[in-house]
Amino acid sequence: MSEEYFGAFGQQNQRKAPCPECGKVTRVDTLFERIDRWHEEGPDISGLIENYVFQCRGCETLFFAKSTGNSEDYIDYYDHVAGEHVQEFIDQKSFWPALPQTPVPSWAGFNLFGADQTLHELLHSVYTAMNSNLPVLAAIGMRTAFDRTAELLGVNADLSFGEKLEELRKGGHISGVQKGVLEVLIDAGSAAAHRGWKPKDSHLATMKEILEALIRDHFVLKREVEELKRSIPSRSKPA
């Protein structure tokens, strides 16, 4: 490796990395770095293992970064602008704490906690499971969060899921179309719990949107609409 190699993140005074507190890529200071080189004689393969401790220049949060790469991990393509073939080596980077792939929406914070602490904790457990690559637990957690939502809306907890959905429809909490959508959510959670189904990320994203819409509409948006209604001045009566 050339003496001009500055590591996978470039020169020290120009480094950027995803800050877990800011939630975006920021400029960082390097508090510690170690670059280990290795080489295998037989197949003639070499590589690097890099470890760093970064500090965000904005919020000053400390976090860790690791990069690995080897002489066999690259892409080869033709650069038409330069008129030559290019070999670009690929670095595998990881960070801790990592940026969450499923960020917690702002409404799921204090507002939801004020509506119901248990539902708040259940929903946050779902986000944690998704960000920890635990899709089965996330799917089961969504079904449990629906259970709690139905209970808060006055549905008997001893009813079956199908009966709960019908009670929600009859009570005017959901429409017939919403009932059909929620049936899919519940079936997906049941498949994960009892039939060994492991949902893909795209499946979980759809399930999350269904659940979030139900919770936000009834426990956050409803209160915000009522507050908006109270703040609107009444029409003045004609003289």
What's the shape? Answer: elongated
Per DSSP, the total helix count is 6
Largest sheet: 5 strands, antiparallel
In CATH terms, what is the architecture of the largest domain? Up-down Bundle
Q: Which spans have pLDDT < 50 for at least 5 consecutive residues?
A: none
Number of strands: 7
Q: Quick one: CATH class of the largest domain?
A: Mainly Alpha
- CATH fold name of the largest domain, please? Four Helix Bundle (Hemerythrin (Met), subunit A)
User: Order of strands across the biggest sheet?
Assistant: 1-2-3-4-7
Helix and strand element order: EEEEEEEHHHHHH
Spatial extent as radius of gyration: 26 Å
Which helices and strands occur, and which strands form pairs?
Layout: E1 16-19, E2 24-40, E3 45-56, E4 62-70, E5 74-79, E6 84-89, E7 92-96, H1 110-115, H2 117-131, H3 135-152, H4 161-170, H5 176-194, H6 201-231
Antiparallel strand pairs: 1-2, 2-3, 3-4, 4-7, 5-6
Helix pairs in contact: 2-3, 3-5, 3-6, 4-5
Description:
With 239 residues, the chain is an alpha+beta fold. The chain folds into two domains: 12-96, no CATH class; 106-231, Four Helix Bundle (Hemerythrin (Met), subunit A) (Up-down Bundle). The chain is built from six helices and seven strands. The strands form two sheets. Strands 1-2-3-4-7 form a five-stranded antiparallel beta sheet, with no helix packed on it. A hairpin with a 5-residue loop joins strand 3 (45-56) and strand 4. Helix 3 packs parallel to helix 6 (201-231).
